[in-house]
Specification:
The structure holds two protein chains of two kinds.
Chain A (H helix, E strand, L loop, with lengths): L8 E6 L2 E3 L20 E3 L1 H17 L3 E10 L4 H10 L3 E6 L11 H16 L6 E5 L10 H9 L3 E10 L8 E8 L2 E8 L2 E5 L11 H7 L4 E5 H4 L9 E7 L8 E3 L2 H10 L4
Parallel strand pairs in A: 1-4, 1-6, 4-5, 5-11, 6-10, 7-10
Antiparallel strand pairs in A: 2-3, 7-8, 8-9
Helix pairs in contact in A: 2-5, 3-4
Chain B lengths: L3 H10 L3 H5 L17 E5 L2 E2 L2 E2 L1 H11 L4 E8 L3 H9 L6 E6 L8 H14 L4 E5 L2 H13 L4 E5 L1 E2 L4 E6 L4 E7 L4 E5 L15 E4 L10 E7 L12 E5 L6 H14 L3 E4 L1 H5 L20 E5 L5 H7 L4 E6 L12 E4 L2 H12 L1
Helix pairs in contact in B: 5-6, 7-10
The chains are: A alpha/beta, B alpha/beta.
Family (chain A): Belongs to the ETF beta-subunit/FixA family.
Pfam family, one (chain A): ETF
InterPro entries (chain A): ETF_a/b_N (IPR014730), ETF_b (IPR012255), ETF_beta_N (IPR033948), Rossmann-like_a/b/a_fold (IPR014729)
């Protein structure tokens, strides 16, 4: 690993293509997943991660040498990487994994290993000193990948962040204060570069990609890799087996009441007040 | 391992705290010879000497595996009263205690390697914790160190290797089987009853701190102070949405109704984002997931992300001006009315 140049920071932003958050999910007829033939988009927490990286550069100008977006998944995953480029990322890396080639869905543990391998490879060109990623994907709702990646890199982690403030220059060993959303309120912690930050909703409001920027994004460097390139054909295989996917028990909507009096008496009847 | 099967067998045959308190169906058909070898480690979260409610829920889920359940508790300041409380949790056999300044605040970087070490030394087959902010932060890191896939936010234990969890904001339920040597699991805080905090007699065992760095330091905490019940565990919750229009209206309309009902106050994401209510009050996929006896949704339309946080409530009341609001499709009792008239009237009549 080359040492990072003084006050030069390369940021990696992992993003995931998920079913659009506004789509109403339907369980697939085979009971093994959900109907994925619907609108997809970038995972909302990852949009916040891209935005945070771009804002960091806007604030610290030349201190950020490069923002690299990375994603693993089937061919269509390239779409969300294009979105990241249009939002301000400089280059993209797509680890292409054909549908059904792993025998099951890619899991956070596999993703963290893929990201580690990508980082090792990229470090030969220019070292990555900060990773900003979403706190969870809205499809599997696992909330694991950032922590797992931090573990295998042996980096500190600052999860569920709603604010990030650098105390000094953006370079290795420099302190950063992160406000984290915890149960019951907020906690402010201090850690140092390099580290993994995972974004909570209130970190920022992501920008929309403008049309000129979408056009420009098409010309930005776009690297394609396979699991074979990374030597991870087996390491990315799932450890969990899907037994079934089912609809949650349907909640029976009850009656409407006409007045507050009726509401109060029904609640009393039910023993709720 | 050899000393275990006898007690484990006894425990598997006797209705333990699990079958006494479990809310899910009581079909424990999985107490087979394999589960006799199950050895579960429960990672406890505590604050100011009290064990977190989510850890007690995880204790119940852990007890459904069969086999012994031991706990791990770490910290520094306020650790001793928490250890005393831990030994009294019903059903625990042993409580591993690691006291060291680096474990204060339960940061993931020093705690994850300790969990790995305890799991490996004790040949644990399962590791459980609550799916809280701390549980999510720590367990995934420990899981990667153990090189196993974590199963997050489970709502049911089907067998010792098969678990059910919600995906897509609770719009689908996934049953998943783990083929890993160690099953690392976080438990949804509303999915099981809390284990009893008395009657236990866990044996204390000291664990040495594991070498390694503690790169994150604590600066300060901003915890919301409130005299109302805690949102996550309150039996009644009154939540306000965007229709409240301002933070003042939250204080004028929602809080008095909550006080009259002795309820906690919640909010939709729209209300939080608009600044009407604090972040910590948000109910939904990205906030708290709750299941109170009574949930009163005031001026909340019922977006799927919000429903993901409250649809397991026993009774849902919706007060909304818009008769077509999706919240009415799941509400047990719906009142189509202007909240500015209906809420003060309801507050009066509840008093």
């Amino acid at each position: 690993m080359r040492p990072t140049l003084v006050n030069n920071l390369r940021v990696l932003v992992p993003v995931k293509r998920t079913i659009d958050y506004a789509v109403k999910i339907r369980v697939a007829s085979d009971g093994k997943g959900v109907d994925t033939n619907v609108k997809h988009a970038m995972n909302p927490f990852d949009e916040i991660a891209v935005e945070e990286a771009v804002r960091l550069r806007e604030k610290h100008k030349d201190a950020i040498t490069k923002i690299t977006a990375v994603s693993a998944g089937p061919a269509k995953t390239a779409d969300v990487l294009r979105t990241a480029l249009a939002m301000g990322a400089d280059d993209a890396i797509h680890v292409e994994i054909p549908d059904n080639s792993l025998g099951g869905p890619l899991e956070p543990l596999g993703v963290s290993k893929i990201l580690k391998a990508v980082i090792d490879k990229e470090n030969e060109k220019e070292e990555i000193g900060l990773i900003i990623m979403g706190k969870q994907a809205i499809d599997d709702d696992a909330s694991q990948t950032g922590q797992m990646l931090a573990a295998i890199l042996d980096w500190p982690q600052a999860t569920f962040a709603s604010k990030m403030e650098f105390k000094g220059k953006l370079e290795k060993g420099e302190k950063v204060q992160v406000t984290r959303e915890v149960d019951g309120g907020l906690a402010v912690v201090e850690t140092s570069l390099p580290f993994v930050l995972t974004t909570d909703l209130r970190l920022n409001e992501p920008r929309y990609a403008s049309l000129p920027n979408i056009m420009k994004a098409k010309k930005k460097p776009f690297q394609k890799l396979t699991l074979k390139d990374l030597g991870l054909e087996d390491a990315a295989k799932p450890r969990l087996e899907t037994i079934k996917v089912q609809e949650p028990p349907k909640r029976e909507g009850g009656a409407k009441v006409e007045s507050v009096d009726e509401l109060v008496s029904k609640l009393k009847e039910a023993g709720r007040i | 391992m050899l000393a275990r099967p006898l007690t484990a067998g006894l425990r598997a045959g006797i209705p333990s705290i699990a079958s006494a308190t479990l809310k899910q169906s009581s079909t424990r058909t999985f107490a087979t010879s394999r589960s006799l070898l199950a050895q579960t480690l429960l990672v406890l979260e505590h604050k100011k000497g009290t064990i977190a409610a989510g850890s007690l829920v995880a204790a119940t889920a852990a007890s459904k595996i069969g086999g012994d359940v031991d706990a791990l508790i770490v910290g520094n300041s306020d650790l001793d009263p928490a250890v005393e409380a831990a030994t009294k949790i019903s059903g625990l056999k042993k409580v591993h205690v690691a006291k060291d300044a680096k474990y204060d605040h339960l940061f993931a970087e020093p705690l994850a390697p300790l969990i790995k070490s305890v799991v490996e030394k004790g040949n644990y087959t399962h590791v459980f914790a609550g799916h809280s902010a701390i549980g999510r932060d720590v367990m995934a890191r420990a899981s990667a160190l153990l090189d196993v896939s974590q199963i997050s936010d489970i709502i049911a234990v089907e067998s010792e290797d098969t678990f059910q969890r919600p995906i897509y904001a609770g719009n689908a339920l996934l049953t998943v089987k783990s083929n890993d040597k160690v099953k690392v699991i976080t438990v949804r805080g509303t999915a099981f009853e809390k284990a009893a905090t008395d009657g236990g007699n866990g044996e204390k065992a000291e664990v040495a701190a594991v070498d390694g760095s503690a790169p994150t330091s604590f600066i300060e905490e901003k915890i919301n102070q409130s005299s109302r019940p805690d949102l996550a565990t309150a039996p009644r919750v009154v939540s306000g949405g965007r229709a409240l229009k301002s933070g003042e209206n939250f204080v004028t309309y929602i809080e008095p109704l909550a006080d009259a009902l002795k309820a906690a106050v919640g909010a939709s994401r729209a209300a939080v984002d608009a600044g009407y209510a604090d972040n910590a009050l948000q109910v939904g996929q990205t906030g708290k997931i709750i299941a109170p006896e009574l949930y009163v949704a005031v001026g909340i339309s019922g977006a799927i992300q919000h429903l993901a946080g409250m649809k397991d409530s026993k009774t849902i009341v919706a007060i909304n001006k818009d008769a077509d609001a999706p919240i009415f499709q799941i509400a047990d009792l719906g009142l189509v009315a202007d909240l500015y008239d209906a809420v003060p009237e309801l507050t009066e009549k509840v008093k």
